[in-house]
């Protein structure tokens, strides 16, 4: 997981080292009731990514994915920063597993 914030946007990247998402499936994964049908993977209702993208867009942001087979996937959640918070961004990437991250309220 990586966090990056600058004066205009906050971006969270969730990265896995899994099997990746097949290219032909990528355009559909944010559609309602679309589920991955990969062997050995748990099944769900197919609403999680759809709802997540809807929430991101409702707040003026985006949720996207990059993936290659056998190289894992990266989900990128980006939101615009509120003006009163815009001076708090350091403009650097943060690896939250190796640093304590505190976002003032």
Roughly what percent helix? 10-25%
Reading side by side through the largest sheet, how are the strands ordered?
Answer: 3-4-2-1-5
Largest sheet: 5 strands, antiparallel
Low-pLDDT segments, ≥5 res: none
For the residues shown, what is the average pLDDT?
81
Percent of residues in β-strands: 25-35%
- State Rg: 16 Å
Distance between the termini: 21 Å
Number of strands: 5
The best one-word shape is: globular
Total helices: the number is 1
Key traits:
105 residues, mainly beta, five-stranded antiparallel beta sheet, globular
Describe the 3D structure.
The chain has 105 residues and is mainly beta. The protein is built from 1 helix and 5 strands, in the order ββαβββ. Strands 3-4-2-1-5 form a 5-stranded antiparallel sheet. β3 (62-67) and β4 form a beta hairpin. The longest helix has 11 residues, at 48-58.
